[in-house]
Design brief:
Layout (H helix, E strand, L loop, with lengths): L2 H37 L8 H5 L9 H5 L7 H11 L7 H4 L8 H13 L4 H5 L3 H5 L10 E5 L33 E5 L9 H7 L4 E6 L1 H14 L6 E2 L9 E5 L4 E7 L4 E5 L9 E8 L1 H4 L7 E4 L9 E5 L2 E6 L11 H17 L7 E5 L32 H22 L4 E5 L2 H5 L34 H16 L1
Parallel strand pairs: 3-6, 3-9, 8-10, 9-12, 12-13
Antiparallel strand pairs: 1-2, 4-5, 5-6, 7-8, 10-11
Length: 485
Amino acid sequence: MNFQDLELSLGKLQTRKKNATKIAPFVALAILFTIIPIYYPSMHHKKLSQVLSSSSLGPLSQDNVLHQSNNSSTEEQNEKLIAASPQINLTKSDASNYSVAPQASSGREFESKLQDSTEPVEEALAPPLQARTNGTEKCDLFSGDWVENIEGPYYTNNTCFVIQEHQNCMKYGRPDRRFLNWKWKPDACELPKFEAHQFLELVRGKSLAFVGDSVARNHMQSLICLLSKVLYPVDVSNTTDQENRRYEYRDYNFNMSIFWAPYLVKANKTEPNNIYQPFNLYLDEPDEAWSTKIQDFDYVIISSGHWFNRPAIFYLNHTLTGCLFCSQPNVSQLTSFFSYQKAFQTAFRAINSLKNYKGVTFLRTFAPSHFEGGVWDKGGDCVRTIPFKRNEKVLEDYNLEFYNIQLQELKVAQKEGENRGLKFRLFDATQPMLLRPDGHPSKYGRWPNPNVTLSNDCVHWCLPGPIDVWSDFLIELFKREATDR
């Protein structure tokens, strides 16, 4: 090789070195952005500027805390997630009782949006409505079946302060836990898991009223237990009884109330100190305990049922019309279907007549009881430990008649409300709850006493328990209302 050839070869080598020097940073970056997503999948959706700013020399962000070593215990990770989430009001002992991992993704999306957004905080915290509805907008939420759910309940009887004794099945020794491991699966979609923070964002600045009997109260208490994962309410009730309560979530300017109205219409006892004697029912007069108080509410959930099977004396236009299970001579014996239909007619007309009411009214349909082996006061009990499949149980007898009456009167109310722009919606709890004979307290709402004989409770629902799915339904119904608006 002569000198010129050597010089030419050295020149080519130097050129390659210079080119390699220029290319090297790009190669390094390519390797970097190939490796990072493999080991940190949650960074896939982050912007380039966010990835570059997360170097080891920079401060530790909330996202970095959330993505620390997989060797950390689940409890530690849950506590870190709670600490990094906005509006959380829980102790460490509370945190360990919840399975918060499913919220991690949405929490990171909220935080990322807050970092880059100039929107108000409450708007940035809430994901787009289209994403929140999760494809359920046109799905029939109430037609489906119960499927096993390994995640278990949202809360425990140790983490919620509003569980009444007769619904605290775990406290009173219910031996099985399998009734807690089911979730409702609609036929045509997935019912998303209840997210407390998302619910509170949906109802920010709004109010919710429950009108009905003790099962309506059971529903409200279930909702409070579910929301306790984020925040406990302030009890601002002006009474000491459990029948009429008001709670405020002041961080969200949201309040909820329960109005005791087991008959929906005006009622009083024939014997003041004996609830087992017939009630006087004035079937064309709404109960003012609720009808004069709901005008300013944004959402009203109205329900009733089981009390209509008790002895009662019926009045229309202040005139004795008939009775149910009464022994008065020359009084027509009427059915519970008669009083049930009249009561819902009167209740819906009362709502439609409210001058300034602009809220949405949900009819929560009848939730059947599950007494077997006898009626409620003759030894009937509910001892099953798993749900029915839909082909194992059908709606029949008085349950079917009550349900049909509700649907019929809802249609009438919807038609009458159209002229004023009032909305009446169906909250169809009947079929899902018909399939849950395993969810009642039975004898596990008290300690056993050999000297006292009490009936088993196959009407109310254990907390936690199947009734928690009602809030899964409710948040989806609220999303649909927000989408319509």
